[in-house]
Specification:
heterodimer; A: alpha/beta; seven-stranded mixed β-sheet; 22 strands; disordered N terminus; B: alpha+beta; ten-stranded mixed β-sheet; 10 helices; globular
Chain lengths: 496, 380
């Protein structure tokens, strides 16, 4: 059973792709068209990722979803072509409802579906697991009735549920403007859109505006114009918010410098931009860096998406077989993700001549981002939480508890986690790591460092683990303490 | 960091090192503790926190019993920080027999303990174990119970001993890796570190998994395996089990934390990387631990593992630590290789080793742990 460490294990596919969003779908289509065996794993039941979430079902529902499709608009409907191609291309083994809890640099993927789990292997792995919304720990953010723009969009797209009552939107970024416009089309009139960005941010970003960015910018200006026409109050330059209420959100306090305004509401939707999901890449031992402009972590990759191994020891050896694509590599939106997915496929196929072509499209698709990043800087998360404001919602850890430790000199984020339980809950730190790391960095002056990521990076039921399929025989041999005392039977027999 | 010359320099600021330093500092010795990282961040802070006499190796028994008394009286050592250590004694530890061989072993162990005059381990039959452990499998045949046992919070305990040691006057210098250890012409020790040179009359090697490397610096070969002992933590569940549950031949060990999560151990090792001071969880191996947990408690099958951790620990060939003076240098002590059961022993190790160093007299309690026990056997 013991294989030499140099021997490679049989693979399940040429390429395994994690995530069936724009990047994962476009990469898999190009790879499968070239005859490669591709497995695509996704958490959701349907392909599409976050941006095209539920699109297939909403299209199939016909007139039932006409109003919704109208409201979600062309950015959403644009996914139809790529989803159709994904479904129709032979050779793509799509496995929905698969959660990934471990990635290894040698091309091993730990998956979970229901109560079954196992490992799959491929010559290459493409992480196209997308982005997440930047956590925003403002006072009251954990109150029921406060949700993120992404969650509100999921309710629209997958739940076909639109908010009712008085809705306040707060934050920054294209997504919250788009959501406001989508809500308007659905007949929901937000009582306030509180923007943390400022006209001066957009003016300062103008030098970064390139021709290729004019389309997206015009789209955004169109949304804003329609919100104005509909007389939906929009305030920019908001410097802080606080959600108010006991059991449920009842209102929001909005600061614009020294001016404070109180607005009653039943739902507070917040958004502070999106950041790459790094948990899988980091768990695989890939290098993650802090991007100052983005105020977030980002995996180190080449333009082709090849990941870089972190220095030092690792669980498995050999070359790095992992590439990262789409928003998980670099926030750029759906068009950029599709372009990069295609490029990654071209690189893997080593297609003569097509590499430079697909790369040019990647570069072009990322151009608008230069402007957007500067025009919509992080706002709600700009000031670090203080006092009783919750940092870790799973374990209910307030900022004060952490500040005490930091002032006492704690500088290691894992040490702080061990002492406070901050980051130990079911979300495994995804919602507090960035906040705690920034708090530590603010004290120490060093760059923010994430928690150590060990498998499983997503919850894994005991029964699934107990019957794990596809284990690595080179690793599986149990090494244990064997510390059963040697008295009793053995000693007795000699004594007698 | 003013004092570069001291009475005793301790290498390693884990529980053992700090517990020894605490007693020495309180007795007025000038003590420096150096740690290559953060004190208590290795095996001391990341173990399961078990406080058990149950299935304790006979050679560790007297030390372990003394340690229980000291855990029960923790404020005398660490002051107010004791409350944060979450010491729970009297909640018990139970070894569950899941098959006939394990049950026969339990019976033999109980006989043996009775013969030796120890009464803390009690043999219980199948109906009793079902009362003690609601949810235990119908297949459980019985087990051994040590009612006085319990557990504590390891990270908080390591940190409490560290802080108390500093309050007692010892200097604790972190991020200060050892680079050289040599005897000077005047008989004192010269200790070179990444933060400069120190001199000391006595040196104690409490370097845990790195203990054998420190010993090798003075030409001493002490056999030690390095294991990356792994633990798993589940999501929170309704409180259902107070005692710590351990296996006999199975990789089973778990307790329910105050927060409701289950902390599952079982002594399975991940991949240890001593040179990089790191380790990796190997989920391919943790299967066995998950299977043993479900076998004993079938209702836990759908509970999810949220995270895992590993810590580097030294294991000696005979499963008990090295505690005693070096065979070549009576003023250099080795205190490491606790084989995954050093957490409970630490307060007693601190007290007894400090006493031995100050009186210069041999402590009978430490006799089984003589550093030269393998070399002596080889020579014989």
């Amino acid at each position: 059973m013991q294989l030499p460490l140099s021997a490679s294990l049989p693979t399940d596919a040429d390429v395994i792709i994690v995530g069936a969003g724009p990047a994962g779908m476009s990469a898999s289509i190009a790879l499968a068209q070239a005859g490669r065996k591709v497995i695509v794993l996704d958490m959701q039941a349907l392909p599409g990722g976050q941006i095209f979430r539920g699109l297939e079902a909403n299209l199939a529902a016909g007139c039932e979803t006409l109003e919704l499709m109208n409201a979600l608009g062309p950015t959403y409907a644009a996914g139809e072509a790529v989803i159709r191609a994904f479904r129709e291309t032979p050779g793509i083994d799509f496995r929905p409802r698969h959660t990934i809890w471990e990635v290894r640099r040698d091309g091993t993927i730990g998956w979970l579906q229901g109560n079954r789990a196992g490992y799959l292997r491929a010559d290459h792995v493409v992480l196209a697991n997308g982005a997440m919304e930047r956590p925003v720990p403002f006072p009251g953010w954990t109150l029921p009735g406060v949700m993120t723009a992404g969650a509100a969009q999921t309710l629209l797209k997958a739940g076909r549920m639109k908010p009712d009552g008085r809705v306040v939107l707060a934050g920054t970024g294209p997504l919250i403007l788009l959501l406001a416009e989508q809500l308007r089309r659905l007949g929901v009139r937000p009582v306030l859109l509180a923007r943390t960005d400022h006209l001066r941010d957009q003016l300062a970003a103008l030098p970064r505006l390139r021709f290729a960015a004019l389309g997206p910018v015009a789209k955004g200006l169109g949304w804003l114009a329609r919100l104005r026409l509909a007389r939906i109050p929009v305030r920019s330059g908001v410097t802080g918010i606080e959600a108010l209420g006991q059991e449920l959100v009842e209102g929001v306090r909005v600061w614009q410098g020294d001016r404070v305004r109180h607005v009653a509401c039943d739902l507070l939707i917040v958004h502070d931009g999106i950041v790459p999901s790094i948990d899988l890449a980091q768990g695989a031992g890939l290098r993650i860096g802090w991007n100052d402009a983005l105020q977030a972590w980002q995996p180190a990759t080449t333009e082709d998406g090849s990941a870089v191994l972190e220095d030092g020891a690792s669980l498995t050896g050999g070359p790095c077989r992992i590439l990262i694509s789409g928003d998980a590599r670099c926030i750029g939106g759906a068009d950029a993700a599709i372009a990069h997915g295609r490029h990654v496929a071209a690189v893997l196929l080593d297609a003569k001549g097509s590499g430079p072509q697909t790369l040019a499209k990647v570069r072009q698709s990322l151009v608008p981002r230069l402007f957007l990043e500067a025009a919509f800087p992080p706002g709600l998360s700009a000031d670090l939480p203080t006092g009783s404001t919750t940092v870790c919602r799973c374990e209910d850890i307030p900022a004060t508890a952490l500040q005490e430790l930091l002032r006492a000199g704690a500088t290691d984020i894992n040490h702080v986690r061990g002492l406070t339980r901050c980051g130990m809950g079911p979300c495994q730190g995804r919602n507090c790591a960035i906040t705690l790391a920034r708090m530590i960095a603010a004290e120490s002056g060093a760059k923010p460092v994430p928690f150590r990521a060990r498998p499983p990076v997503r919850p894994l039921p005991l029964q699934a683990l107990a019957a794990l399929a596809g284990v690595d025989p080179r690793l599986a041999e149990v090494v244990s303490l064997e510390d059963k005392p040697q008295v009793a039977v053995a000693v007795r027999s000699t004594d007698v | 960091m003013s004092d570069r010359s001291c009475d005793v320099l301790i290498i390693g600021g884990g529980l053992q090192g700090c517990a020894i330093a605490l007693h020495l500092a309180r007795a007025g010795r000038r003590v420096v503790v150096i740690d290559k990282g953060i004190a208590g961040r290795q095996a001391s802070g990341v173990n399961a926190g078990g406080l058990r006499l149950l299935l304790r190796d006979m050679r560790e028994y007297s030390l372990s019993r003394r340690a229980m008394e000291l855990w029960a009286d923790l404020p005398s050592q660490v002051g107010d920080a004791a409350s944060g250590c979450e010491v729970q004694l009297g909640t018990g530890q139970i070894a569950v027999a899941m098959d006939a061989a394990e049950w026969a072993w339990c019976q033999a162990r109980a006989d043996e303990m009775r013969r030796l005059g120890f009464h803390n381990e009690v043999l219980v039959d199948a109906p009793t174990i079902r009362t003690l452990l609601p949810g235990v499998s119908d297949r459980a045949l019985g087990g051994l119970v040590s009612q006085g046992d319990g557990h504590a919070n390891p990270a908080a305990s390591a940190s409490a001993f560290r802080d108390a040691t500093a309050v007692a006057g010892a200097q604790i210098i972190e991020h200060c890796a050892l680079q050289g250890l040599a005897r000077m012409a005047d008989g004192r020790w010269r200790i070179d570190t990444e933060q400069g040179q120190f001199t000391a009359l006595q040196v104690i090697n409490c370097a845990g998994a790195w203990g054998a490397e420190v010993a090798a610096m003075v030409g001493e070969v002490l056999p030690l395996d390095v294991l990356a002992l792994s633990m798993m933590v589940t999501s929170r569940v309704q409180p259902f089990v107070t005692p710590v549950v351990i296996g006999i031949d199975r990789p089973l060990s778990f307790k329910q934390s105050a927060a409701g999560s289950l902390v599952i151990g079982g002594g399975i090792a991940g991949k240890a990387c001593l040179q990089d001071s790191t380790s990796f969880t190997v989920m391919d191996r943790m299967m066995a631990s998950a299977a043993a947990t479900i076998e004993a408690f079938p209702a836990l099958a759908s509970i999810s593992i949220l995270r895992t951790w590993t810590g580097l620990e030294g294991k000696t060939p005979d499963g008990i630590p090295y505690i005693g003076p070096s065979t070549a240098h009576p003023d250099l002590w080795h205190v490491f290789g606790f084989c995954g059961h050093g957490f409970q022993l630490a307060p007693a190790v601190g007290e007894v080793v400090a006493r031995a160093l100050m009186t210069g007299k041999a402590e009978p309690m430490l006799a089984p742990f003589a550093v030269g026990r393998f070399t002596a056997r080889a020579a014989a």
